[in-house]
């Protein structure tokens, strides 16, 4: 892993001037919002590199127009994100705002962006607030609604026939949503629900509880460093014979640090690097060649974001001023997703398949999640019905 | 909750406490002896973890990584002392807090620039792999027992150093009457540098020991730092003995509170609110304990200055 961040930064630094040089005259400008500082910067780097890889495959053009990318570091601070995004819209006149890893950043910028008539394409954050009654004509997401992913794990646990599941999540809104999402489809007994502080370092107390409860499986949502700690300690405590069902806990961004400890652990996603379709094979192979690490969903969804914009700009023949035509073109989503089938629902959230994935070791010694089986087909998020857009 | 589980949780608490002690010992020495608030102690712990993890990966051995990381952490500490901290000793606490906070920001970003922002992994050494079966289904990792032993050994070593050696006597004297010690012809600058270097090395040692259990990422020092400050405040600033007792206390209160409170609250209220309230109260418990102890003993359990 050593040095990857540096190489990523270098890659972007090399790519950007080249793209910028081509942007003379009529072009398309993208404000790419990706956190580059703070403990979660690895996710923002994944997102940025995924989008840039998409542009590379498109020869630096979107729908035939030369593309210019401004990378905006939101610093994971909503007020910073708003200031920088406003500047990108008013001063730099970006045509699209793309990216955003975290929901709280998205919540802060969604009004400033969409009210200025600019399209906002989230490639990761998919909060419920924008999926239901708060759905927005100028907002699209290429990821999912967060609740869907948790409920996929609930369905998978139900399908496998687990009777007793131990639930453990961090004690904040997203953690409680995760537990609720899991329980929405899991009908067995929840033996215990444990909420841990977001700053938790040592899980030994919770692990002892799990051992005492002897559940059929454990469900957890521990993003970032929390998940690294938990997965390693779970393995060290000899609990790995209890199936580890998780969301956003074992993915390609944390696997380099979790390594062998995460082997065989489960996650839920709409995409995994091993998905066997030509678009995905090309994406994963070239991404790894460019950036030297295995892409996670953050990168794949951003890559899809680039392809989506390419298809939309092409469909309107480069006339970015015709907002209604452009909106219809994005809504049509006529591109080949790395996930296979892809379409937007009425609320501009994807209607897609969800998979149960498992951590595996590849022949080259790197770790990745791999699809086990399809859990939900053509799934619409639970809030879409409340959206009044048609 | 069975007695077996309770004992295991107690052991977990002690082990977490010992890890906290490793971080807090250096902090209390520097704060107590030099009257210098070093917020950057947490990033020194982080540096230790990073150095240990990369040196272990480079040499292919945990032990070589550990042995090499200690002098490396010492050098980093001394360089920081020479570049930044030395100019702050005469200044007030606010300047020290501001400057060392700046060091935190700088080093967190520097670590990210050098190692990248994804967490690193450091494998458990083969000698300490595996676990002891303490209760059915739960292994107690041998490595955690090693942390416990290492922490106790450091505590013993520090006790001998501070209570039984000439340098220790100077350190104790410096903690109570620094100007007097200087007037007696002791090179207080040199003494400070020694203490500071030792503190940096202790922080680095704690970082390396924690690396195989905890995630090595930028910012890992920040969470530990807060608890370390709680520990040295409860223990009495400058007192190694106080830091030891307080660290164990904080570790046990934290662990038992987190694991028992939700179950205890369930006896008096419904399951769902009991879980949430228990979790919230569990994470507050350490601070409530600190407030109570300070109410009774405002200078901590073992105050150094009279």
Unreliable parts of chain A: 1-24
Largest sheet of chain A: 8 strands, mixed
Which class do the helix and strand fractions of chain B yield? mainly alpha
Kindly state the number of beta strands of chain B.
2
Q: How many helix segments of chain A?
A: 12
Cα(first) to Cα(last) distance of chain B is 44 Å
Which CATH architecture of the largest domain in chain A? 3-Layer(aba) Sandwich
Strand arrangement in the largest pleated sheet of chain B: 1-2
Question: What proportion of the residues of chain A form beta strands (DSSP E)?
Answer: 15-25%
Q: What's the rounded overall pLDDT mean of chain B? A: 87
pLDDT averaged residue by residue of chain A: 90
**CATH level-3 fold name of the largest domain in chain A:** Rossmann fold
Radius of gyration of chain A (Å): 20 Å
Helix-strand layout with pairing:
The complex is a heterodimer of chains A (390) and B (306).
Chain A: H1 4-21, E1 28-33, H2 41-57, E2 61-62, E3 65-72, H3 78-90, E4 96-99, H4 103-115, E5 119-122, E6 139-141, H5 146-160, E7 164-170, H6 173-185, E8 189-196, H7 204-213, E9 217-220, H8 225-236, E10 244-246, H9 255-258, E11 266-269, H10 278-291, H11 297-315, H12 323-332, E12 343-344, E13 350-361, E14 367-379
Parallel strand pairs in A: 1-3, 1-4, 4-5, 5-6, 7-8, 7-9, 9-10, 10-11
Antiparallel strand pairs in A: 2-3, 11-13, 12-13, 13-14
Helix pairs in contact in A: 1-2, 2-10, 2-11, 3-4, 5-6, 11-12
Chain B: H1 3-34, H2 41-59, H3 62-83, H4 93-115, E1 131-135, E2 138-141, H5 142-164, H6 166-183, H7 188-210, H8 220-235, H9 240-266, H10 271-296
Antiparallel strand pairs in B: 1-2
Helix pairs in contact in B: 1-5, 1-7, 1-8, 1-9, 2-3, 2-4, 2-7, 2-8, 3-7, 5-6, 8-9, 9-10
